[in-house]
Design goal:
By secondary structure, this protein is of the alpha+beta class. It has 4 helices and 7 strands; from the N terminus they run βααβββαβαββ. Strand 2 and strand 3 form a beta hairpin.
């Protein structure tokens, strides 16, 4: 497959539907590198199926599609009884470098405002400088480091202007 050179009008970001499960699983079956960060996404299909079924129960899942193909996925995982929620985001390797990660991150953070949580939390490898730049521009800040992994948080009381509703 030829990698797109820029974000295009054929790419749509929308809420995940139950009927998208097979296409989302297919994205993760072809995702590289395997075990991208902290064992996610899971490297083999049985684990991918279980992981995705659990994510479908979350309140906020969005996908990016190019036609019928899922090319990106972001989710906000609610942490019951806590003042924060967790963000996960994955962009298929053929769609990296075109601004899709930024658009997915902005879209999922906008949707997270409705949960009423005070913070969004995530973990990112320190070598993923493109993602870290996106997170910083949105308002995330590094709160801890675990070897080569950063823990970052976004204070929902003061998100960047790009998230204003």
């Amino acid at each position: 497959m030829e990698k797109p050179r820029q974000f295009s009008e054929t790419i749509t970001i929308r809420n995940l539907k139950d009927t998208d499960f097979r296409a989302l699983l297919e994205m993760y079956q072809h995702f590289q590198p395997k075990n991208y960060i902290m064992g996610l996404p899971p490297p083999i299909e049985p684990l991918q199926v279980e992981w995705l079924k659990n994510l479908l129960h979350e309140k906020l899942n969005i996908i990016a599609t190019d036609g019928v193909k899922v090319v990106g996925h972001a989710a906000i995982i609610d942490v019951p009884g806590a003042d924060f929620c967790e963000l996960i985001i994955f962009v298929h390797q053929d769609y990296r470098g075109i601004g899709l990660g930024k658009k997915l991150t902005e879209a999922i953070c906008q949707r997270a405002l409705i949960l009423g949580k005070k913070k969004i939390w995530l973990m990112v490898e320190s070598k993923n400088t493109i993602a870290i730049k996106i997170y910083y521009n949105i308002g995330f800040r590094v709160t801890k480091m675990y070897g080569d992994v950063y823990e970052m948080e976004l204070d929902m009381d003061t998100p960047a202007e790009s998230l204003s509703l």
